[in-house]
Amino acid sequence: MKDHAKVSCVRDHTLPDSVLLDVVIKLDQVTVHLDYIDDYETMRISRRSLVFRRCSRVSVAINTGYATPNSILAGDECTTPEGRKIRIEMNTTASVIEITAEEVELL
User: Within a 13 Å sphere around the CA of 41, how many CA atoms are in the beta-carbon half?
Assistant: First the structure.
């Protein structure tokens, strides 16, 4: 996988079972840091970031009651008049992150 890759659709990436490390929100950009599963066959993991640029809407409903690693259950995406709406659901905490952005990049 390339070091920097434009994400055409989050469903095309191995988000399920990757572990959410943190979420950083700055102005119109959101960065989600992950222990990302590069390859399910070998279970090779690398530290990666999903960067959402030119965000028009961000909704973060995170349940902080659990201290265990918070893995991703699913990542989904649809197109709206405002941009690409991405929804990330977590396994452990049932937390949900929804972001509407013009551009998504995996670093």
Answer: 0
- Calpha distance 39→10 (Å, rounded): 16
Q: DSSP string spanning 32-73?
A: EEEEEEEETTTTEEEEEEEEEEEEEEEEEE--TT--S-EEEE
CB 30, CB 105: distance < 8 Å:
no
pTM of the model: 0.86
User: What is the rounded distance in angstroms from the CA atom of residue 88 to the CA atom of residue 3?
Assistant: 22
CA dist., res. 12 & res. 84, Å (int): 14
* Neighbouring-strand partners of residue 45: 37
DSSP state of 11: G
The pLDDT tens digits of the residues spanning 35-79 come to 988 888 888 899 999 999 999 999 988 877 766 678 889 989 999
